[in-house]
Each structure stands twice: as C-alpha cells, then as structure tokens.
Amino acid sequence: MRKIARAAAVLPIVAALCVGMTSTAQAETDCTDYSDNGGAKSQFKAYGEHLLIDDIFADGNSAVGGIEIYGDGHYFYWNRLSADGGVRDVNLDIAEGTTVVINAWLGNWDGTVTGGIDFTSNAVSNCHAVA
Length: 131
Hints:
The protein is of the alpha+beta class. It is 16% helix and 38% strand. It has one helix spanning 2-22; strands at residues 31-34, 40-45, 50-55, 62-69, 73-79, 88-91, 99-107, 117-118, 127-130. Strands 4, 5, 7, 8 and 9 form a five-stranded antiparallel β-sheet that branches. The chain has a four-stranded antiparallel β-sheet with strand order 1-2-3-6, with no helix packed on it. The radius of gyration is 22 Å and the shape is globular. The termini are far apart. 26% of the residues are buried.
C-alpha cells in the first residue's frame, strides 16, 4: 500500500518536470558566417529577421548570402555592389522560433540565382540561428 501511495505522490511531480522541460521556447539568436577566404560575410539578425550580406574584399567576386529556413526552403541573396558599395540588407519575414542556417559564398553573377555561386568557397562553416 505504501508503494502505491508513494507512486501517487511522485508521478505528478515527475510529469510536471517533464512538461516543463519540453515546453521551453528557444530564444532568438544571431549568427555570422564568412566564406573560407573571408571575402564574403553573411550576418543574420534575429530581431526583425534581417540578413546582411557584405562583400569584404575588392577581388572581383560578389558576396552571396544563403539562408535555409527550416520548413520553408533555401534562399540566395546577392550583393553585387562591390566591396565599397555597402552592405545589402534583406528584410525577411520568418516565424518566431524558426531555426535557420546561414552561409556566405563568393560568386560571379551569370543572370541566374544560383548559377554563378562558387559553392566550394564555403566548405568549412555555416551558422545556426533562431528567428
């Protein structure tokens, strides 16, 4: 009888702890990624969901920012302004709590969204964030 009473007292506590652990929301997070040579930079700002693409070096390549929005797809944004032309700010609309992956590549615009991207220019890194 004591075992049943003890189980009846412990089970609601365990259940409450499990619910508390699984229902915590993820906080917004920022992240930054660079191409392997550092010539392209993509920065995700969670507050307001902005993707900033910066062409760091005046090397004839464009900077390309990539974002994978879980549950939505992959998107590519070009900054073709040159290294001294400024940062491209892409204002996104992403649901709060959505996980994203950010990449930065070098590219040579050929008239298509992905055709001129050198996907080997960022073989090392990417970053994960939460909108």
